[in-house]
Amino acid sequence: MTKRHKKKWSDLSSSQQAVILALGSIQLSLAATAWADLAARAPEEVNGSKAKWAAVIAISWVGPILYFAKGRLPSM
């Protein structure tokens, strides 16, 4: 059985590092935007509990996308 070599940040090329940083920035921006939107909405404008959606938003890329797709009720 061979032992897997875990790559360190310094083992990555500069372009790989740039892609990881860009994707991380996008993910954090999506989450921050979703949390700000959630905080600004009244509970009646959210499909379910605000606490539940705050936790869902923390889940990778999926959380903020789910919140924007399903968590907000249409404006009247």
Structure description:
It is a single chain. The protein is mostly helical. It has a domain at 30-76. It is built from 3 helices and no strands. The protein has helices at 14-40, 50-57, 62-71. Helix 1 (14-40) runs antiparallel to helix 2 (50-57) and helix 1 (14-40) runs parallel beside helix 3.
List keywords for this structure.
single chain, 76 residues, 3 helices, elongated
CA gyration radius, whole angstroms: 18 Å
Question: Biggest β-sheet: count, sense, barrel?
Answer: none
The overall pLDDT, averaged over residues, is 92
Number of strands: 0
Number of distinct helices: 3
Oligomer: single chain
Low-confidence stretches: none
User: Can you give the helix content as a percent range?
Assistant: 55-70%
Strand content: under 5%
Distance between the termini: 62 Å
Any idea what the shape is?
Answer: elongated
Order of helices and strands: HHH
Structural class category: mainly alpha
What's a concise summary of this model?
With 76 residues, the chain is mainly alpha-helical.
Detail the topology: elements first, then pairings.
Blueprint: H1 14-40, H2 50-57, H3 62-71
Helix pairs in contact: 1-2, 1-3, 2-3
